[in-house]
Amino acid sequence: MPDLLVELGTEEMPADAIAPALAAWRKETEAVLAAQRLPAASWRVAATPRRLVLHAAGIPEVQPGTVQEHSGPPKSAAFDAEGRPTRVAEGFARKQGVPVSEIQFRNTARGEYCFAVRRIEGRDAHEILSEVLPAVIARLPFTKSMTWRDPSQRFVRPVRTIAALFGPKVIPFESWGIRSGREVLGHPFLSPGPLSLESAEFDAYRERLRERKVIVDPGERRSIIEGQLEGLLAKYGVGHGQPALLEEVTNLVEWPQAIEGGFSEEFLRVPGEVVEAAMMEHQRYFPVHDRGGRLVNRFIVISNREGDPRGRIRAGNERVLRARLADARFFWEEDRKTRLADRVEGLKSVLYQEKLGSYHDRAGRIAAMAACLGRSQGLPAAELEKLGRAAWLCKADLLTQMVYEFPALQGVMGREYATADGEPTEVAQAIEEHYRPRQAGGNLPESALGTLLALAEKVDTIGACFAAGLAPTASQDPYGLRRQTLGIIRIVLEKKLSLALTPLFQHELALLPESLGARADLLVEIRNFIRDRLYHFSLDAGYRYDLVHAVLAAGFDDLLDFWARLDAVTALSAEPEWPALVEVVERTCKIARGAAIAGEPEEGLLREQPERRVFEVYQRHGAEIEKLFRAGDYRSGARLYHRVFAQTVHDFFDKVFVNVEDAGVRQNRLKLMRAVHRLFADRVANLVQVVLGGQAPPS
Question: How many domains does the structure of the chain reveal?
Answer without folding.
Answer: 5
